[in-house]
């Protein structure tokens, strides 16, 4: 399998399937296309008749694009790794929250883009009402997962207990909240610590820090 991604520092959609595959122990090669610095992504997209977006997974002759479609494909290909929770209630919640991330949280995503190298203080940034609503929504979701996990006797550190697709879908949120000094809730903070401590997240961070490409419009995000 080959996973086509972009900048580790900035590409939040790339992180999701990459982290899922690493944590699940799925073997893959990676191809990194720095789309703002050369034409390789455009050429790749034209070759496969795709929009010029990553991530894309190549498996045998199959081309799978879009983070959620890739996650679903992997869940189907590796049923023994339980990429979605095995409990039906937790799975339904995980699927709903994953879809919500895929199509929502626009204010947080646009105002505070993922930037693993950034270390800012919230006091120096503009937190709009729309961003605050997204942060409140995260807190409500984390409370809902905590209650669902308790009901289903699965008390691990991740959203549904064991790491699953929903944690991968929210992984960039961890870098956003951490990097811009934002606050969500105690339940969120416990999850964030567990995510940050994952060896795969540390591997991603080290690679992001080693990258020399920069995108100034993202480096200045959130500032007044
Ligand atoms: N809905 C898509 C979003 C993919 C996306 O927007 N990827 C960004 C990178 S994080 C991209 O490829 N941008 C290329 C560009 O802006 O030229 C998914 O879930 O994979």
Automatic annotation (TrEMBL):
Superkingdom of origin organism: Bacteria
Gene Ontology MF terms: glutathione transferase activity; maleylacetoacetate isomerase activity
Pfam families assigned: GST_N_2 (PF13409)
InterPro entries: Glutathione-S-Trfase_C_sf, Glutathione_S-Trfase, Glutathione_S-Trfase_N, Thioredoxin-like_sf
GO biological process terms on file: glutathione metabolic process; L-phenylalanine catabolic process
PANTHER family hit by this protein: MALEYLACETOACETATE ISOMERASE (PTHR42673)
CDD domains in the cross-refs: GST_C_3
Official protein name in the record: Glutathione S-transferase
Residues covered by the GST N-terminal domain: 1-82
Source organism of the structure: Salinispirillum sp. LH 10-3-1
